[in-house]
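Why run this: before we spend reagent on co-expression, it is cheaper to look at a predicted model of the complex and decide which construct boundaries make sense. The entries below are exactly what would go into the expression plan.
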Amino acid sequence: METLSYTAVVLGAGPGGYPCAIRLAQLGVKTLVIEREYWGGVCLNVGCIPSKALITAAKRFEEIAHADTMGIEVDAPRINMEKLQTWKRGITGKLSGGIKTLLKGNKADMLHGTATFVGPKVLEVEKADGSGKVRVEAEHVVIATGSRPIEIPGFSFKDARVLDSTKALDLATLPPRVAVIGGGYIGLELGGVYAKLGSKVTVIEMADQVLPGFDADVVKLIDRKLRKGGVAIELKAQAKGWEETPDGALLRYATPEGEKTLLVDVILVTVGRRPNTDGIGLENVGVAMEGRFIATDKQLKTSVPGVYAIGDCTTGLMLAHKASHDGEVAAEVIAGHPAFNDAKTVPAVVFTDPEIATAGLMEHEARGRGHAVKVGKVPFAAIGRALTTGETDGFVKVVADAADNRILGVTICGPHASDLISECVLAVEMDCELLDVALSIHPHPTLGEGVMEACKAALGEAIHVLNA
Ligand code: FAD
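The model came back. Tokens follow.
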């Protein structure tokens, strides 16, 4: 078998692996990245990007349907799923191709195939073109194998009626009735898409709220908006199984009031994701694990010298930007630089309608950690720009330490929360005080004024809302 030798090998070309390989190559390290399926990983191909494309289309569809409030009169819009999917595939194709161009341009080598460890720093790769196996040896190995959707007993993704997120992003026709098992962010994002496009969507959630762990004010608003948009939500409900009937799939689920049934066309299961740490020969490496996840330190080093792990296959939030940050830090460490992943906050965004974004601690987390807090909350209804966009649902909530006014966290639920949060990430990362943001002149009229105003509100100095 042919043997290839590299200074660094990156296993997986997702948002963890590809930036790691690019940065390694930029730093002059002879690098190979191995990918079995998707250049750009889950995120670009079957995750963040295609889901946001569908979310945007569904929102625009809804906006057009209701544009008459702004004096825009149109006939009822229709959705062409085939065209929508073609548009979506165009985006993912362009981005995935771009990743290969970037890797090539930075002189990182690429190998298309499935890799298995045969030793701590030795891999065997079954080449995707069917031309057999190749052996790869390296001084440094970065494991970036990502994650996959969790299957639950009785709901096999092999069944046409049962969808994981990947299948749900690729539907050729609009299913009239959809059950979503799991009211976390992926379920609500995708359920929201199909509800806006016209499906009857029911969310089955085991906890007593959707988006478990999120700020209570956010959950209340999102729950209300979903129901208003026609989504049924069953809380404290546990899916038990389903049967094929002449009228569709009959879903059974347990509730505190007893077992209920629901007739649907498809069942989307979004109960979480599992790291791809099995089936890759990890037993031949001997890295320490934390459950199914690979344990790492702040330099992304595993317990085996020269072996690193980044992204979804490690502990921490399973988010693309966390994976990318891990990847770039690991590359610096391999190149001999004193780099650490010591970020104070990994922001999180949920692309529901309205969007949710958090940086630092949410109010209940700050209180739970024993902080005496000052809270400033400003509704978007008080922000002029929000009115001009026709989107006034939601708020900005800033939480600061009552002792020194240091910003502990910001939660935004509202229009463009995903973009507004970046300023707040910097504020938390830089240990800003409320006045730092409150005295920074924010342009008018913009949604960003909500962040400035919330900082003023926490100080009791708001202008556009009454101070508590
Ligand atoms: P992955 O993206 O999973 O990439 C791992 C790569 O490794 C894959 O391409 C895989 O083929 C390859 N691989 C695995 N094993 C092998 C092997 N043995 N040999 C060769 N190659 C291998 N995150 C966000 O931050 N924002 C979002 O809005 C967001 N939306 C999402 C929506 C959906 C529907 C889903 C499913 C996920 C979403 N995520 C989002 C999560 C995000 O996609 C992941 O956190 C991110 O992709 C993790 O990156 P990664 O590089 O660790 O792994």
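The pocket of flavin-adenine dinucleotide is lined by residues 11-17, 34-38, 41-43, 47-48, 51, 114-115, 144-147, 165, 186, 276, 280, 311-312, 318-321, 323, 351 (CB under 6 Å). Residues 359 and 424 are 6 Å apart (CA to CA). Bring this page to Monday's planning discussion.
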